[in-house]
Amino acid sequence: MTLPSILFYAFIAVVSIQIIYYLSFLFTFGVKHAETRLKKHIPISVIICAKNEAENLKKNIPLILNQAYSDFEIVLVNDSSFDNSLEIMKDFEAKNNNIKLVDVKINEAFWGNKKYALTLGIKASKHDFLVFTDADCIPNSKHWLAHMSSGFSNQKSIVLGYGAYAKKKFSFLNKLIRFETVMTALQYFSYAEMGLPYMGVGRNMAYRKDLFFNNCGFNSHMSIKSGDDDLFINEVANTTNTAICFSKESFTISEPKTTLKAWILQKRRHISTANFYKLKHQLLLGVFYITQLLFWTLGISLIILGFSWQWIIALISLRLVVQWLSFGFTAKKFEETDLIILAPFLELFLITTQLSIFITNLISKPKHWK
């Protein structure tokens, strides 16, 4: 058998695996409708950990205070900021009786570790149900807390939400960031629906306090700088205790990075935690990424070689149609429809960037969160 023939059969296998993944995503999440029934307001503690976020705190805390929710507190955690974040937090605390301030001093053992600061914030919270977001995030509506809290039940102690990024006109980087965010959400929502929850994003997620303490908090990965969201969820989430919330009113929106260098540094920190996921999640995510990479590598190689090009084009087209359906339904849910037509090009750029990040992380470890 010739080398082109071997590559061709390998390409058929890769396309088949990709189609299985995308059809699984499509039918478990892509065609799913968001739950819009709101439940009775349960007492909620909103935890916001901030390090040098003075301007974002000043701008965004009023939007959270303005939530149409009857019983909630905001726990502001100052993680050893050296700007005037602490003063702004104190001012909010003085003017609002539902704001509690936790001022985390520099600790040599835990310096620069967001998990330590978050742990102190969780301990200081007075309610059993916790909602997490970041200082640079704004709720997409006044009903953000109502929608997120409605995911809790006697069985569900974790609620995974969607953290969007703001749109910027005429920016390819912005489209790339938003594409990566939609693809990540498509996967973690789909896996959760299939009974295999593996991560959430700290920009928008919730869980019960007793789940945190029964797991000894972040103790098993406290030395890892990232992972206060995904590693914790990977540890505690299971088939029965995880709900998803993706109604438009439940989104949070953050300002994206504006330079490629800053975004790559951020992704280096995020990707560094994947090695600590459960093995089954590493395998599922790894096979999906590897077959994505091989789809483009083998497809382009076979076209260049001119081997059965009609079949190659047909297989590429089939996979792209299935991808467009899966990604398209999801992008519509997340109000990211401008990305649909560009999905193949954004995917190609994203997987090559991720490959370079994987290689870079093998050479040197990324720095702490701020």
TrEMBL record:
Residues 45-212 form the Glycosyltransferase 2-like domain. Keywords: Glycosyltransferase, Membrane, Transferase, Transmembrane, Transmembrane helix. InterPro entries: Glyco_trans_2-like (IPR001173), Nucleotide-diphossugar_trans (IPR029044). The chain crosses the membrane at residues 6-31, 283-303, 309-327, 339-363. The keyword Glycosyltransferase applies. It holds the Pfam family Glycos_transf_2. The keyword Transferase applies. Belongs to the glycosyltransferase 2 family. This is Glycosyltransferase.
